[in-house]
Amino acid sequence: MIRNLVAAAALAALTSMNMAFAGPTPAPKDAHAYIGYPNDGQVVPANKPFRVWFGLRYMGVAPKGVKYANTGHHHLLIDTELPPMDQEIPSDRQHLHFGAGETETTVTLPPGKHTLQLLMGDENHIPHNPPVYSKKITVIAK
User: Fold this and answer.
1) Quick one: which of 2, 58, 62, 109 has the fewest CB in 10 Å?
2) How confident is the model over 8-63, as pLDDT tens digits?
3) Does the domain formed by 2-141 have CATH 2.60.40.10?
């Protein structure tokens, strides 16, 4: 009896923790985002625009404000960590929003080592459940 209560409490805690770390919009479990260009470790021009294109598998792209199953829009994270997964993705110089459904952009970076990562957001800029994001890549601006 006590063992069952402990197991039920542990399951409830894990379930509530999972809910707190993801947004309300479901995503396909196999969906993933990726940066198609530039490649990890690539040298890019410093202080000049270079192209970044976004990839997405097993999910579609829709503009902000459009609620359609298994869709979202890209956010490019520059030199930062992933934000909280249960809150709206910030909009600033390190969290670029592509709410019109864009799948590429140009970025200008100062000289040095930089990181790029994609994170999908739902119609309200909140990450999906489970979150859909790319691996973080490093580029060197010279």
Assistant:
1) 2
2) 444 444 444 444 478 999 999 999 999 999 999 999 999 999 999 999 999 999 99
3) yes
- Average the pLDDT over 65-94 and give the result: 97
| Token representation of residue 10 | 């542990």
DSSP 85-99: TTSPPP-BTTEEE-T
List Cβ neighbours of 85 (8 Å cut-off, separation of 6 or more): 21, 22, 23, 127, 131
Question: Taking CA 45 as the corner, what is the angle to CA 39 and CA 48, rounded to the nearest 5 degrees?
Answer: 120
Residue 47, token pair as written in the block? 């202080």
Domain boundary assignment for the chain: 2-141
**Max CA-CA distance within the chain?**
66
**Over the Cα atoms of the chain, what is R_g?**
18
Its pTM stands at 0.85
What does the alpha-carbon distance between residue 99 and residue 12 come to, in Å, rounded to a whole number?
35
Query: In this predicted model, what pLDDT tens digit does every residue of 87-121 receive, in sequence order?
Result: 999 999 999 999 999 999 999 999 999 999 999 99
